[in-house]
Amino acid sequence: MRGMLIICALLLGLSSQAQQEWVYSMQALNLYDGNAAAAGMYEHASINLRYRQQFSGFSGSPTTAFLSANTSFGSLNGGLRLKRESIGAFDRTMVALHLAYRLDVGPGQLSFALGGGIRNEQLDVSEITVSTTDVDVLINSEAITKPLLEGAMLYRSKRFFAGIEVGHLLTQERRASGSDTRMESLAMIGTQHRLNSMLSLRPMIAARYDVDGALLPEAQVGLWWKQTLWIGAGYRLSSEAYGFVEYRIKRKLRLAYGFGVPTEGVGSVSNGHHEVMLGFLFGKKQRSVQSIRYFQ
User: Are 74 and 63 in contact (CB under 8 A)?
Assistant: First the structure.
């Protein structure tokens, strides 16, 4: 009985969850993944890889693989995102390129970004084994390819950042279910407070407005030790509590792991959420990038 309830909950949630943008628990560790205006924020070119599994322990549970890269060319910066998401029989692949322009404003820098790409969504009927005699189920397994357009802005100084990214800017972009897609946005605000010569405190708040019109607020706090070890924890309302740790090797290699405990829904009886991240900085330093750096 419990297994049937879990299957039903997953199937009922498929139509909405499959349409939402990815969520994860380590936004602050690589700002470009959540805000395209952060492209070029490092003194080197950057490549970042993530893998996240939600509701681990269930067959067909949501997974996200994410590759991002960005670099600085002075005031003009560029970035690339490649994402693949799977939820049961549903698969979605997204590719987007971004251009960001940065200018000095007061003690910090203000950046604007615009990006575009495509997303491909497909439902593999061969993976569906649930049958019913009471309800006629109509499934469209044809792949759907749609354009993407998204914009972002970010203000960043040595001890503060605030930014927002808005997606689904094209009104003709449609959901696989046939209804209009709402614009989706992610806003983040974070600060850094030095406690002593070795330890800094980094709180952050965020809010996501998703395609279903729901507002998902979140708060997290982290401790940064010697600019090498970062340990943090957070809570996403009506979703999960989570923790994460990042270790940086000579500031060019970054390793991170996050674990979340779902607080509501089918996820509350799962084995939790797991996320891993691997980041690289490479190439020569961009001399045009000054000491205004946040979360490096």
Answer: no
Q: Is residue 68 part of a domain?
A: yes
Report pTM: 0.81
The residues, any chain, with a CB within 8 Å of residue 134's CB and separated by 6 or more, are none
User: Whole-angstrom Cα distance, residue 18 to residue 173?
Assistant: 15
The total domain count for the chain is 1
Instruction: Name residues of the chain where pLDDT drops below 70.
Output: 1-24, 43, 57-58, 125-142, 171-182, 211-212, 265-270, 284-296
164 and 35 in contact (C-beta within 8 Å)?
yes
Gap between the Cα atoms of 286 and 296, Å rounded: 15
Residue 188 is encoded by which pair of tokens?
Answer: 């983040």
Residue 68 maps to which CATH number?
2.40.160.40
The domain of 181 spans 2-282
Amino acid making up residue 165: E
**Number of Cβ within a 10 Å radius of residue 290:** 10
Non-local (6+) Cβ contacts of 59 within 8 A are none
